């Protein structure tokens, strides 16, 4: 039985999970040529869509995620749990500790 999730807003991460969506690479070159979709490389940059509340460690300390909704982050090339949405979009669920870095605006 396959269910299709209609929107990323209906997904609520638990514990230290973070829901992200990859930033789409430009399908147009600097000279104005359009590239086929299969030739466009996946970027390691993503936007945070939702963040779980965190978890309590073995010592009873509350550990909260280091990112918040709207942050731009670097994610690993592989890993996470991919969730297909009803369109051709997909989102990825990572643990907070799997996110490589937060991108600051310069």
Can you describe what's shown?
With 106 residues, this protein is mostly beta strands. Helices cover 0% and strands 31% of the residues. It is built from no helices and eight strands. It has strands at 17-22, 45-51, 55-56, 62-63, 72-74, 81-84, 90-95, 101-103. Strands 6-7-1-2-5-8 form a six-stranded antiparallel beta sheet, with no helix packed on it. A hairpin with a 5-residue loop joins strand 3 (55-56) and strand 4 (62-63). The protein is globular and about 55 Å long. This is 10 kDa heat shock protein. Pfam families: Cpn10. Eukaryotic CPN10 homolog which is essential for mitochondrial protein biogenesis, together with CPN60. Binds to CPN60 in the presence of Mg-ATP and suppresses the ATPase activity of the latter. One of its GO terms (molecular function) is unfolded protein binding. It comes from Maudiozyma exigua (Yeast).
């Amino acid at each position: 039985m396959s269910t299709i999730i209609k929107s990323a807003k209906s997904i609520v991460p638990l514990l230290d999970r973070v829901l992200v969506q990859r930033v789409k690479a430009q399908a147009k070159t600097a000279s104005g040529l359009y590239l086929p979709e299969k030739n466009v490389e996946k970027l390691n940059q993503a936007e945070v869509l939702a963040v779980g509340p965190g978890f309590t460690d073995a010592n009873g300390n509350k550990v909260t995620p280091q990112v918040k909704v709207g942050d731009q982050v670097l994610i690993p090339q592989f890993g996470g749990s991919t969730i297909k949405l009803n369109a051709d979009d997909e989102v990825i669920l990572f643990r907070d500790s799997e996110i490589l870095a937060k991108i600051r605006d310069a």
